[in-house]
Amino acid sequence: MHTIFARRTAVAAAALALGAAAQAQSIHLDTYTLVGTYALPIQAPGLTIQYEASAVAWNRSTNTLFIVGDGGRYIQQTSLTGVVIDAMALPLATGASRAGVEFDDPEGLAWLGGNSFVMTEERKRQVVRFDYVAGTTLARANTATVTLGTTVGNTGLEGVSVDASTNSYFLVNQAAGNGGSTQNIFQTTINFSGTGGTASNGSASTANATPLFPAANIGFNDLNDVYALSNVAGFAGAASNNLLVLTNAGGIKEVSRAGVVLSQRTVPSGTAQIEGITMDDRGYIYLVSDNGDFGASQAASSLFVYAPVPEPQSLALLLAGLGLLGAVVRQRRA
Description:
Low-confidence stretches: 1-22, 43-49, 312-319
Largest sheet: 4 strands, antiparallel
Helix content: 10-25%
């Protein structure tokens, strides 16, 4: 009887210990360490493919990264170390266009599942839903495009993340710009339908969507991307509700949905800018930068990989839990 009770107690204690890290209030960005820096290839046959990488998304189905450059010419699939796997072209414009491309200034990218993604067009403040098909060219007619704000300058929709817990989206408006637009982090549902759709927070006539919280709470002069931790399968508890907010000047900050800063991490700085952020189910963070004076190559965009390092108390709980589980196994074998 005592043996059965002891075993059940040990299993319960082990489960609590093993789950402690996953139930944390924060992912503690200050414990993350840089484990890899890789130059992203910038050349396809005769074309610049990753000039100024601006966004990155991790695909759980393929365990690969997808990267878009703000030149609006390609979306590229790479390994977790930046090795090119394949690419999908973005077309040149058929009519009037500021930069001569159909998808003007792509700055945000998020994976929806399967081969489906959304990307943002910064200046037009549009969200574009599309299916990635390697070796083809993405036509506007094969996408669904929803406008979330009036057209602005180079200060519009800089990043996007899916919120897996509510089937909605988080977006960042980079900074104050023309037309009365302001720096903003906001949440919206989007109903994509045919080649268009509607949103619950934003439209073609909206100067500023209703913010999730005052952007001044987190103290960044510019916002480059956002990532919802609800997308990470291994996270639970309060941490899974948090957001990672990226800026070039201030690094990464983990914030609650009320705008409370919970942890932060500096990132490489220089004339280049860190433009995009994503995370995989191991909790590894992937950042992409545009061209500049740091990274694996001064001529290319770069990929930076950060790995989580367990805090001493979390590691102690984990080891204690594993020790209890081992004791239970030994007792059963006896």
